[in-house]
Design goal:
- The chain is an alpha/beta fold.
- It is 32% helix and 27% strand.
- The chain is built from seven helices and eleven strands.
- The protein has helices at residues 45-52, 78-84, 100-110, 116-129, 145-157, 175-190, 202-207; strands at residues 5-16, 19-30, 34-38, 58-59, 62-65, 68-69, 85-88, 163-167, 194-198, 211-216, 219-225.
- The strands form two sheets. Strands 7-8-9-3-10-11 form a six-stranded mixed beta sheet, with helices on both faces. Strands 1, 2, 4, 5 and 6 form a five-stranded antiparallel beta sheet that branches.
- Helix 4 (116-129) crosses helix 5 and helix 5 packs parallel to helix 6 (175-190).
- It is globular, with a radius of gyration of 17 Å.
- 38% of the residues are buried.
């Protein structure tokens, strides 16, 4: 049976102020699929991710994400949209003045989890999933870079999203930590969560082949499943 799409963009235009980043863009991502989003620095990868979570307005014929129409998205719709999507950023975006446990509680409370017992159970589940059992009482700055990003992934998974967006998730990590984080993301995808990953890490794409979409000149080019035997451009 053909899988349902979790993301559908048809003839999309995306502008940031007076600058048009994308025009005439088409992109579809199906449930459980993994797609790499590549392109040189400044080509709009991060802006596209931000548009998909409602931070940048989007225009066009069709823009559906997890059943939510982005073309008529209002401010009151954004929390519901973000409950259906997990997002992992390059700079972690953790609350550094709160313990690991409180970082997760903040998201759960903000997304409607009122029962404390259920919140505690869910926090234990996601921390176990990312290999951070027993770290709930730690402050984020006491964690390694790789552990901080795994915490960010745990936070993104709290509401069991059908789509995970990862924007250069290894951009601030050393090679060993990058390996851990990428393996974790691929494992999550293989568990059934669709994954759209903006990256410049060609070695990762060689090791974990998936469909590649390139940002270039205001367009998205679907390159299919390809291998990058050697880097050919300096991406950001």
């Amino acid at each position: 049976m053909d899988r349902e799409p979790v993301l559908q963009l048809e003839d999309i235009t995306l502008a940031y102020g007076p600058r048009v980043l994308f025009e005439g863009v088409h992109l579809e991502l199906k449930a459980g699929e993994m797609v790499y989003l590549v392109g040189k620095s400044g080509q709009g990868k991060s802006s596209l991710v931000r548009a998909l979570i409602g931070e940048i307005p989007i225009q066009g014929r069709r823009a559906m994400v997890m059943g939510q129409n982005l073309l008529n998205l209002s401010r009151k719709d954004i929390p519901a949209l973000r409950r259906r999507i997990g997002v992992v950023f390059q700079d972690f975006q953790l609350l550094m003045d709160r313990k690991v446990d409180a970082n997760l509680d903040f998201v759960l409370e903000a997304t409607g989890w009122k029962d404390k017992t259920q919140r505690n159970q869910r926090k234990e589940e996601v921390l176990a999933l990312v290999g951070l059992v027993g770290k709930g009482a730690e402050m984020p700055h006491r964690l390694s870079g790789g552990e901080q990003q795994r915490l960010a992934i745990a936070r993104a998974l709290l509401n069991n999203p059908g789509l995970l967006l990862a924007d250069e998730p290894t951009g601030q990590l050393d090679p060993d930590s990058s390996e851990e984080v990428l393996s974790l993301l691929v494992e999550i995808n293989r568990g059934g969560t669709a994954l759209l990953m903006a990256t410049h890490d060609y070695m990762t794409m060689d090791r974990f082949p998936a469909r590649v979409v390139r940002c270039s000149g205001g367009r998205l080019e679907d390159m299919g499943n390809i291998l990058f035997e050697s880097p050919s451009e300096n991406n950001g």
